[in-house]
Design goal:
Shape: globular
Largest sheet: 4 strands, antiparallel
Strand order of the largest sheet: 2-3-1-4
Number of helices: 3
Helix content: 25-40%
Strand content: 15-25%
Structural class: alpha+beta
Number of strands: 4
């Protein structure tokens, strides 16, 4: 399944997220690390500062594996 994800970077995490993306270390150790890098390369930030990207996920419930990782650095938006 594909999901449209919306999130904001948690306060104080933007620099670390940018560095992890640039160094290709984002998600290192996760089964989906390459997917995380791809997602952030494709993400777009809107005027409210919310990032939007399409996440491919086969979990039930959706994003079950990804959510714990992302919740360390992102706040999910509705």
């Amino acid at each position: 399944m594909r999901y449209l994800v919306k999130a904001r970077v948690k306060s104080g995490c933007a620099g670390a997220l940018a560095k992890a993306i640039a160094d290709r270390m984002l998600g290192r150790g996760s089964i989906a690390s390459d997917e995380y890098l791809y997602d952030m390369q494709m993400a777009r930030v809107d005027a409210r500062g919310e990032a939007h990207w399409v996440e491919t996920c086969f979990c039930d419930p959706p994003l079950e594996e990804e959510r714990p990782y992302w919740e360390n650095i992102l706040i999910f938006c509705r």
